[in-house]
Amino acid sequence: MKSQIISQGAEAIIELKANKVIKKRIQKSYRIKELDEKIRKLRTRAEAKILERASKIIPVPKVMKSDENSKEISMELIEGKRLSEFLQTQPEKKQKEICKSLGKNISRLHKENIIHGDLTPGNMICVLQDSNLDPIKKRGDIRSSTGAAVGARGGLDKSSSENFKIYFIDFGLAYISPKLEDKAVDLHLLREALEAGFGEKWKILFNSIKQGYAKSNPEAKKILERFTVVEKRGRYKRSS
User: Fold this and answer.
1) Does residue 190 register a pLDDT over 90?
2) Does the annotation mark 118 as catalytic?
């Protein structure tokens, strides 16, 4: 069966093949060949390991196969929509609910010292139990994969009152770190992405994320204090 390229970035090509999503790391011609091989192999291995570790904590793509030699990771395909797009269609009350849930899951990652490295609503997929919440799904416009959804085990947690589940994707820049600074920078990236995508409304959304974040990590207070320092530093850089 032929594969279909559905996304291509600086680091990898994303293909859809036989209901699987395959992430292939791109060869870099500007690097020495032997060094490039080693870097891509190590990054493939690291990403697969972090996905496996994260899967015990939050919804993430289920790794079906990881091949260091071909620099490929195969993941299960699910249907859903990028959170950046989905949030735009929802009333403020629902946006706050989703963002609180999002904050809890980010906090759980950070509690296990997993730094995502590219924490944006574009790297999250929302899957719904109730399709009536989703005007785009009503139009039959659900796309698949990282133009839409790359996901994990499918279905929702029936023990939860939430009628949605958010999958975190693209752990290509993820790493392990216990540092408060790294966790604060992760949050700062998300804050900047929200401002870019939602204008002044980012404040309402990010406040809900912080509320959820504070409930799921005993270090949350210290991390959020460090976030304030990182944010001030970011404002200084933009104004200088």
Assistant:
1) yes
2) yes
